[in-house]
Amino acid sequence: MSVVLEAKHINKYFKKPVLFHVLKDVSFQINKGEFVSIMGKSGSGKSTLLYILSTMDTDYDGELYLNNQLITNQTRDYLSYIRNKHIGFVFQFHYLLPEFSVLENVMLPAKKLAEKSHQEIESKAIEKLRMLDIENLAHKKASQISGGEKQRVSIARALINNPTILMGDEPTGNLDSQNSENVFDIFKDLSENQGLSLLVVTHDQDFAKRTNRIISMEDGMIIT
Ligand SMILES: Nc1ncnc2c1ncn2[C@@H]1O[C@H](COP(=O)(O)OP(=O)(O)OP(=O)(O)O)[C@@H](O)[C@H]1O
To answer: Which keywords fit this entry according to its UniProt record (predicted)?
Structure first.
């Protein structure tokens, strides 16, 4: 089984207002195609950890590997490239650009990467929308679709560059049970049938217990 993401002895301190050891020797691996959830009480350090894993926060001790490549201590530009190419994100709030069409929103991360022509990016975006069963929304403005549809659009956007891993911070936190179920089914399908790795912070027990593995956090430490 190939390892996609590896965290080795991650320690993180917040220095203000007082010195606070927020992540304590956090180590784990995520394999290709694995669907993993992170659970833990409010304040246990989940978002802080995800921020580091997503390469957004570089102020930590320890080592982080993506596709067996060390990404700790790399330049900001390189990290921004790695993030765009290999990591997809889905948040609790969708962060779509309301005045842009669904299609344009999905195309944006590929435009930023600038490795393909407009035409190629557009057909890739349509392919992702079709996969998520929302091709019919392509030309609607993002502000004109429902909450569940917006979350599916953000998943399409997160997948546009064919990432190695999809990270989610409470991706179903703002959805009703039916839409949460849809998101879970999409994630499950991506991991089982497309070999995508997923790492999702959630407070939803029902969601977490159906993933391949739960990483439980308490007071900045992994307890399982
Ligand atoms: N910038 C910061 N400066 C100082 N302390 C912080 C900062 N950000 C977070 N913390 C503290 O670090 C701890 C972990 O916060 P974090 O947001 O990672 O928790 P969480 O498990 O994601 O919580 P929640 O489930 O409520 O989102 C908390 O005690 C929080 O108050």
So the answer is: ATP-binding, Nucleotide-binding, Translocase, Transport
Question: What's the CA-to-centroid distance between 136 and ligand 1, angstroms?
Answer: 39
CA distances from 55 to 37, 48, 66, 113, 194 (A): 19, 11, 10, 17, 24
Domain ranges of the chain: 34-47+75-222
Q: What is the pLDDT of residues 158-215, one digit of tens each?
A: 999 999 999 999 999 988 999 899 999 999 999 999 999 999 999 999 999 999 999 9
69-70 sheet: strands from edge to edge: 20-31, 3-14, 61-66, 69-70
Decide whether any atom of ligand 1 lies within 6 Å of the 58 Cβ.
Answer: no
Model confidence pLDDT, tens digit, residues 41-74: 999 999 999 999 999 999 999 999 999 999 999 9
Which long-range contacts link 123-129 to residues 24+ away (Cβ below 8 Å)?
124/160, 125/156, 125/160, 128/156, 128/159, 128/160, 129/102, 129/103, 129/153, 129/156
> Which superfamily does CATH assign the domain made up of 34-47+75-222 to?
P-loop containing nucleotide triphosphate hydrolases (3.40.50.300)
Best of 13, 37, 47, 52 for a ligand 1 pocket test (most atoms within 8 Å of beta carbon): 47
Q: Which amino acid is at 11?
A: N
Query: Is residue 112 within 8 Å of 104, Cβ to Cβ?
Result: no
